[in-house]
Amino acid sequence: MLQTAHRTAYNEDHEAFRDTVRKVLAEHMTPFLDQHEEEGIVPREAWKALGEAGMLCPTIAEENGGLGLDFGFNCVVNEEVSYLGSAAGFTLQNDITANYFERLGSEEQRAKYLPRMVSGDVISAIAMTEPGAGSDLQGVKTTAVADGNHLIINGSKTYITNGQNADVVIVVAKTDPSQGAKGTSLILVDADTPGFEKGRNLDKIGQHSADTSELFFADVRVPKTNILGGEGRGFIHLMEELPQERLSIAVTAMGAAQRAFDEAVNFTKDRKAFGQTVFEFQNTKFTLADLKAKLQVGWAHLDWAIARHLRGELTTDEASAAKLWHTEMQWQMVDASLQLHGGAGYMNEYAIARLWRDARVQRIYGGTSEIMKEVVSRSI
Asked: How many whole angstroms separate alpha carbon 142 and alpha carbon 157?
């Protein structure tokens, strides 16, 4: 269990909410983690359970069907889900897509989607990445060509979180390819729209419980009123959301890193070798001491970043630095913790194996570590 007594980012309301989160996860997620991994998806029943408990999109305003809470409540959910060892796509809906709908959506769009996203009846995704465009979103090839009062969307997307479950997708497409990034728009596509197809639930190294898909658009016809925000302002809208998205990844990195450390401590104190526990060897104690120091620094920095974001002060370069440091630290943590498990760490029956697999992509999505360094360097 995460120890939060000395955290500085949260107040009593956050911690009371954390108690609820833990109870809901214990009932609706923990017993089914292996099932989610095997099936490659978290079923809608779990989404509904979290929605009923107020764990989906807690920042959404009351007039839009939400609780109107601050982003700290999202962070509580993120920490607990990642500490649990689940890769469920709740974080995407809570921290990323919900904000797009509430901040950019028309009154009709907010009314149509947000209350049902809060309840878990609607699952959302955002389709940025393409086979030929990852971190460089300016290279998007999917087009949305005007046809009277409609747009005709053609193209494909890949590596889309919540892709199989999604009821609605925010599609990044070029409404004016001649304008480059300035010709990019965000367009809402409902899953039952003719011409829209979900491809494979992709076979990944890790994060098996997260449904991650290919999406295809063949003459998908939607009204121009499905544009989210301003036409041609999609790239700007994407950039505006990056600080929160990257902070969100940093939060999940810390939760998983702490779990990996706790697993290593428990294993080494229980496992015996050469007449003593593995923990009693100096190498083990020194390794764990080094990891604990990194966790101490990590939690302190994360609280600083959360507090800055809650005040509206977290900059893009600060959030990028947070994602860079915390995800790189997460990888060091899970790798060292697996090593301390010895051969057992390579067995999927141990939690550390899943934590290790799931951690690898954290340094890739949301902007690779290399891109994070480029962003941070621009602020120097």
From this structure: 8
Distance in angstroms (rounded) separating the CA atoms of residues 212 and 232: 27
Q: Please name every residue paired with 223 in a beta bridge, in sequence order, or none if there are none.
A: 150
DSSP-assigned letter for residue 166: -
Q: Which string of DSSP letters, residue by residue, matches 262-327?
A: HHHHHHHHH-EETTEEGGGSHHHHHHHHHHHHHHHHHHHHHHHHHHHHHTT---HHHHHHHHHHHH
Where do the structural domains in the chain lie, given as residue ranges?
Answer: 12-122, 125-231, 236-377
Q: For residue range 18-70, what is the model confidence (pLDDT) as tens digits?
A: 999 999 999 999 999 999 999 999 999 999 999 999 999 999 999 999 999 99
For residue 133, name the pLDDT band (cuts at 50, 70, 90). Answer: confident
Number of Cβ within a 10 Å radius of residue 303: 18
Phi then psi for 168, rounded to 5 degrees? -145, 140
Query: CATH homologous superfamily for 236-377?
Result: Butyryl-CoA Dehydrogenase, subunit A, domain 3 (1.20.140.10)
* Residues 294 and 332: beta-carbon distance below 8 Å: yes
CATH T-level assignment (fold) for domain 125-231:
Butyryl-CoA Dehydrogenase, subunit A; domain 2 (2.40.110)
Strands 150-161 and 143-147: antiparallel
CA distance 355 to 333: 10
Q: How far apart are the first and last CA of the chain?
A: 38
Amino acid found at 245: E
Phi and psi dihedrals of 307, rounded to 5? -60, -40
Q: Is the Cβ–Cβ distance between 198 and 191 less than 8 Å?
A: yes
**Residue 110: CB partners within 8 Å, gap ≥ 6?**
64, 101, 102
Q: Model-level pTM?
A: 0.95
Query: What integer pLDDT is reported at residue 178 of this predicted model?
Result: 85
At residue 189, the 3 state secondary structure works out as strand
Phi and psi at residue 249, to the nearest 5°: -65, -40
CA-to-CA distance for 230 and 80, rounded, in angstroms?
35
Burial of residue 97 (CB within 10 Å: 0-12, 13-18, 19+) is: buried
Residues designated catalytic: 245
